[in-house]
Amino acid sequence: MTKALKKYFPIFAGPTLLAFLIAFIVPFFTGLYLSFTKFTTLTNGRWVGTENYAKAFAERSGFVHALGFTAVVSVISIITVNLGAFVLAYLLTRKLRGTNFFRSVFFMPNLIGGIVLGYTWQVMLNAILQHWDQTIVNDWHLGMAGLILLVNWQLMGYMMIIYIAGLQNVPPELIEAAQIDGASRWGTLRNVTIPMVMPSITICLFLTLANTFKMYDQNLALTNGAPLKQTQMAALNIVEAMYKQVGKQGVAQAEAVIFFVIVAVIALIQLRATRSKEVDA
């Protein structure tokens, strides 16, 4: 078997590795190099050292504010999405009628594209806010609330499916043993169910973190950073710097590298923290 795997490994894994090299590794290191240059095309970069990184953190770039706004939206969304998804999953794993129907309904928003979701929620929220002579782009608080609502509506059903899979894998004998020992429903949930579902929690926290921090199309369609770029998230800030601001391609690339490092570090910390709490069945 080992000889066969070694023999056919290049045939089966080769195309995937080649595609990964072309689509990710080469562009990543090319972008890393360009972040230290001033360029307009890939071939005319002029080395400027860390100048782009200094400009990225300058107040005029708006990147630091975008990072802060992204962090606030992400933290609130991660908490609300996962709490809501876990509660839905817990309810839908009880022996209730129509659970399969509700699982499908709650999952459906995840199938809709971000641009469509953004414009749809913009219309719905503006229809409500017009009764108070407001729109979602009049106040950054309204824009932030709209983004959080949108993210919850889109991701909660997807995370719910993962939590349902985790809850269904909890050994029934552990629940029965806890009940025999006199544990309350809350005690069983806290001391038995949640520790056994930690692998699902790890996955859901990682997915919500990645999706909220990198959110672009929903932000573009819902508020486009209005008012005065106060609701502009990091990904939207980087794209605008790259394509709409003359001579800032290098700065935008530096912002992209900084953003990548921040998201990667936070994700690694989160994965390590939650995996340490996982228990074996």
UniProtKB/TrEMBL annotation:
Keywords for this protein:
Cell membrane, Membrane, Transmembrane, Transmembrane helix, Transport
Q: Does the keyword Cell membrane apply?
A: yes
Q: Would you identify the family this protein belongs to, as annotated?
A: Belongs to the binding-protein-dependent transport system permease family.
The record's section on CDD domains has: TM_PBP2 (cd06261)
UniProt keyword annotation of Transmembrane present: yes
* Name recorded for this polypeptide: ABC transporter permease
- Tell me, what is an example of a GO biological process annotation in this record? transmembrane transport
Give the source's domain of life in one word.
Answer: Bacteria
To which species is this protein native?
A: Actinomyces radicidentis
What cellular-component terms does GO give this entry?
plasma membrane
Task: Please tell me where this protein is predominantly located.
Answer: membrane
Pfam families assigned to the protein according to its UniProt record, in alphabetical order = BPD_transp_1
Q: Where is the ABC transmembrane type-1 domain?
A: 67-270
Subcellular localization is given as: Cell membrane
- Segments crossing the lipid bilayer: 12-36, 66-92, 104-124, 144-167, 188-210, 250-269
Q: How does the UniProt record describe the way this protein sits in the membrane?
A: Multi-pass membrane protein
